[in-house]
Specification:
This protein is α+β, with helices and mostly antiparallel strands. Helix content is about 35%, strand content about 15%. It is globular and about 60 Å long.
């Protein structure tokens, strides 16, 4: 696990705008937060810095400082959306619900700040490069139950198709509810059957701007 933010960095995080997550600090402080994955530099002038979803969670004390994705071990105490099929029973308590809600709100803010038109109803660039996690977060935030190792619930998996994930749910009604949730979160979802097994699943991809 990485070191916690320095006192100066923590003051920058705590002083972030509570709505937009806009940051003020020295270039060195902001660059360090970007490196940790807690902030991002807006691509458009004046190139201000804002908290990432992880930064929002750290500010709210919901989770520990995350390890950069390329370095994070499987056991790191970093928030991760439940994609279904993880070891152990899915977490469903109040603490988990708070974490998921905070993550979803942070993702909506990231959409607002990084989509060229500021749209929050359409997935952003981060979601297009983290398809499985993004789809799983949308489902979990809406109250769908992720599958355990041996029980029912949704499972989100990669597919060979670009910008598309597969969502499995053994209950047909629940599968259709997953489709409605994803469509409401800015995804396109269509139901299919696997040719050899007949298993129903959703093929979902983020919508693009028209």
């Amino acid at each position: 696990m990485t070191r916690p933010p320095t006192a100066a960095q923590r003051r920058v995080i705590d002083a972030a705008d509570p709505v937009t997550g806009r940051l003020r600090g020295t270039e060195a402080q902001l660059a360090a937060l970007v490196k940790r994955g807690l902030a991002f530099r807006h691509p458009r002038p004046p190139h201000d810095h804002f908290l990432t979803p992880e930064g929002h969670r750290v500010r709210q004390g919901v989770t520990q400082v995350p390890v950069p994705a390329a370095e994070a071990p499987a056991t790191a105490g970093v928030f991760a959306a439940r994609v279904g099929g993880e070891e152990g029973a899915p977490e469903t308590g109040p603490a988990r619900r708070r974490e998921v809600h905070s993550a979803w709100q942070g993702l909506l803010e990231l959409r607002r700040m990084t989509n060229p038109d500021g749209a929050v109803e359409r997935p952003c660039g981060w979601e297009r490069t983290h398809l499985v996690q993004a789809a799983a977060l949308a489902l979990e935030a809406a109250g769908h139950r992720p599958a355990g190792q041996d029980d029912g619930g949704y499972r989100v998996r990669e597919t060979p198709q670009p910008e598309a994930v597969a969502v499995y749910e053994p209950d047909g009604e629940a599968l259709r509810a997953c489709a409605a949730t994803l469509e409401g979160a800015g995804w396109q979802a269509s139901e299919h059957r696997e040719p050899r097994t007949g298993t129903r699943y959703l093929l979902a991809s983020p919508r693009r701007a028209r």
